[in-house]
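During the no-cost extension, the postdoctoral fellow (Dr. R.K.) reprocessed legacy sequence entries with the updated structure-token encoder. One reprocessed record is reproduced below for audit purposes.
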Amino acid sequence: MMREQASQDSLKLDHLLRQGEAAARVGDRAEAEALLRRAVEAYPYSEDAWLALAGVVEDLAEKRTLLRRVLDINPANEEARLGLERIAAKLGPSPDDTNAEVEEVLCVCGSGRMTTLRCGRCGKPICPNCFVRHPVGLRCRECAQVRKSPVYNLGTSDYLIAGLVGLGLSAVMGLVLRFLGGFGFFAIFIGLAVGGGIADLMSRVIRYKRGVGMQVLAGVCLVVGAMIGVLMTSPQLLTFLLRGDMRVIAALVASLNPFFLLAAIVGAIGRLR
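Re-encoded structure tokens follow.
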């Protein structure tokens, strides 16, 4: 039960961090800051969340406070220390940066050692005898049991559910395209948005999981779904297909808008990285 809860927390935190980073990359600092503040409120012992928030906050005084919080969780975080040094060069040194004493507490592993280190996920005191180095910081042994991010752990049922959702949405997309036309030059931009939206919904129904397998699945769903949309509006082609005439496949491919479809696949792949 505890492993399952840790896995769910990791998924939610990872999703918030990715959304915040994506917003920051496109220059939407307000959205990025709002998402990352949600992350630190929900997961106050995540050094990654505090570090990411410090990266998007513009006020240097607040940035300094956030970086100190990272060091409270993990005094060994070199990125936070370097950030504080850069801020000190601009604002001048702060007594809190040089003379602050981190309270030592007894490690929970039973070693009897006092420590200032804490698990980056649950906040438990951990000593050098028991901590585990994790890709996102120091972890206690219990929290480090999920070594690979659960975001990329997909089972058969995940692929099945996501595939059904993706295929259904892609078929609707193909049907709408037949009625609205090819969109001309704007097909590329619309395709990026549609592909990204379908991929996002595919990921949501399986708790925001993603990865290479999901990228391939989304691409297949987009192509097959677009063909289904064409068949739904072309009874003659459907009749030929039911008769086993494989030349219908060539006709279906020729009827698709390659620019829209390629843009949709690119948008889906980008969303599922």
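The chain has two domains: 2-150, 154-271. The mean pLDDT is 79. The remaining legacy entries will be reprocessed before the final report is submitted.
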